[in-house]
Specification:
The protein is 29% helix and 23% strand. It is α/β, with parallel strands linked by helices. It has one domain: 3-Layer(aba) Sandwich (Rossmann fold). Strand 4 and strand 5 form a beta hairpin.
């Protein structure tokens, strides 16, 4: 967790939505609208590690891309230090690109195999307008050293490196410009288990030294508790629970968060496989259920859940989108079985 966390927001999303049109039918003659991010409010404070947790297909990565303006929101806005990034142009946009970086999930497809390592790592510097070859070379060498790579390897191609080393190259590219905000899109999920801890420790060490803010995207609850100051749980494009990592992961309230935790492997031999509560498949963004989006999988859902969508509201020291914790609707909920 970050020792220098501020209460001041660095990045904030306000009613952020991302919409895509998907062509269907014969020769793509018709289309359906899907919304992987639906009216999300989210903030990342200065010096904080905010983690977004959810199953594959919950909209986590799309949210991260929208915060960086890598995809265009269909509604809402993103503020970086109070500046609306959707309105940034020219030199202002180039500076934003330097200050807001990303480490991608796949260390293979995210690095151009045609380029030398020095060209990959220095790309954010050149893109932001830096022209001094000596300064570019010095900062590239410094970034490689910080991530545990020998600067003498700058002239090599990425195919000469292992998966863990490639991810270190991706991290070096992200930090070379000393950004204030970094999105980590499941940066260890494609790595061997033996390498994952090394990369996580490296990222947390870099964050503690630089004071940068991280948005950590993950489906791993155990890892999220280790790295996070605050946690937001996403399901089907919406945030369903948000609070500190101790609150959300230590004492989850939303049925989805509770069910996610039930799927975490444990050394407790008394726990049976049947103890895992989550069943069924997530809904399609093209065919979302009426009411609460988790109602078709939730063991505690009642009639109101299938008719009305709950709003994210304060409960138990955090925010939860569930009628079980809304005072008026809780009165009509059946007792827990």
């Amino acid at each position: 967790m970050s020792p220098a966390t501020s209460t001041e927001d660095l990045v904030s999303a306000e009613a952020l939505s991302v919409t895509y049109k998907v062509r269907t039918g014969f020769l793509g003659s018709t289309h359906r609208v899907i919304k992987p991010v639906d009216c999300v409010d989210l903030s990342v404070r200065k010096g904080e590690v905010m983690t977004v947790i959810g199953e594959s297909g919950s909209g986590k990565s799309t949210l991260g891309f929208a915060l960086l303006r890598l995809v265009k929101p269909s509604a809402g806005r993103v503020l970086f230090s109070g500046q609306d990034i959707g309105k940034a142009k020219g030199s202002d946009l180039r500076e934003l690109r330097r200050q807001m970086q990303i480490v991608f999930q796949d260390p293979y497809s995210s690095l151009d195999p045609r380029l030398h390592v020095k060209d990959i790592v220095s790309e954010p510097l050149i893109g932001s307008g830096m022209k001094d070859p000596g300064e570019i070379d010095d900062r590239t060498s410094r970034a490689m050293t910080m991530v545990g790579l020998d600067p003498s390897a700058k002239s090599k191609y990425v195919h000469e490196f292992s998966g863990g080393q490639r991810q270190r190259i991706g991290i070096a590219r992200a930090i070379v410009g000393d950004p204030q905000f970094v999105v980590l899109d499941e940066p260890t999920s494609n790595l061997d288990v033996s390498i994952q801890a090394q990369i996580l420790n490296l990222l947390m060490d870099l964050q503690s030294k630089s004071g940068a803010s991280y948005l950590f995207i993950s489906h791993n609850m155990a890892v999220s508790q280790y790295v996070s100051d605050r946690v937001a749980v996403m399901y089907a494009g919406e945030v369903v629970e948000r609070g500190t990592s101790e609150e959300v992961i230590g004492e989850p309230m939303h049925p989805y968060t509770q069910d996610l935790l039930s799927c975490v492997p444990t050394m407790d031999i008394s726990r049976k496989v049947t103890d895992v509560k989550i069943t069924g498949d997530p809904p399609s963004f093209a065919d979302l259920p009426r009411g609460c989006r988790y109602s078709n999988r939730c063991k505690r859902a009642f009639d109101l859940c299938k008719e009305k969508e709950p709003a994210l509201a304060a409960a138990g020291g955090r925010e939860v989108a569930c009628f079980l914790y809304h005072k008026e609707e809780r009165a009509v909920a059946p007792p827990e079985r």
